[in-house]
Amino acid sequence: MLISVVLFFFYGIEVNDITNELKSITIFVDVDDTLVRSYGTKRIPITATIEHLKALNKQGAELYCWSSGGGDYAKKSAEEFGIAHIFIAFLPKPQVIIDDQNITDWKRFVQVHPLSCPQKTRDDYQSALEP
User: Fold this and answer.
1) How many whole angstroms separate alpha carbon 56 and alpha carbon 12?
2) How many other CB atoms are there within 10 angstroms of residue 13's CB atom?
3) Beta strands across the sheet bearing 87-92
4) d(CA 120, CA 67)
5) Considering the domain boundaries, does residue 19 fall inside one?
6) Is 106 domain-assigned?
7) In terms of Cα–Cα distance, which of 102, 75, 114 is closest to 91?
8) Per residue in 63-120, pLDDT tens?
9) With b meaning 16 or more CB within 10 Å and e meaning fewer, what string describes 22-32?
10) Model-level pTM?
11) What is the CATH number for 57?
12) Domains contained in the chain, number
């Protein structure tokens, strides 16, 4: 209780805010062969992934869309399939990450192949991140 009072009085932080932050989940989603398949000039939406992302959005996941084709391409692709509103931002996929840790050593990080995700929920991903 004292910690709650101190955090709120001195920093304006409520313990519930900290708990919610720890339980929030941020998901970055690729475009090509994740949201859409291309066959020549035809673009075919991957509906299982799209429906999964809609469900994650409703469950409170923070979704970002990125692509090696750039942020504008990511946004246009999301708009094409009517899901731009579920993403917080559209970004180019990074080519270089400057970090003191190797990606394989990141805590609370998991990579998911799109074919394995349709039956999963935000809580499933959250459980996979638990130590």
Assistant:
1) 30
2) 14
3) 26-30, 62-67, 87-92
4) 23
5) no
6) yes
7) 75
8) 999 999 999 999 999 999 999 999 999 999 999 989 998 888 888 888 888 888 878 8
9) eeebebebbbb
10) 0.78
11) 3.40.50.1000
12) 1
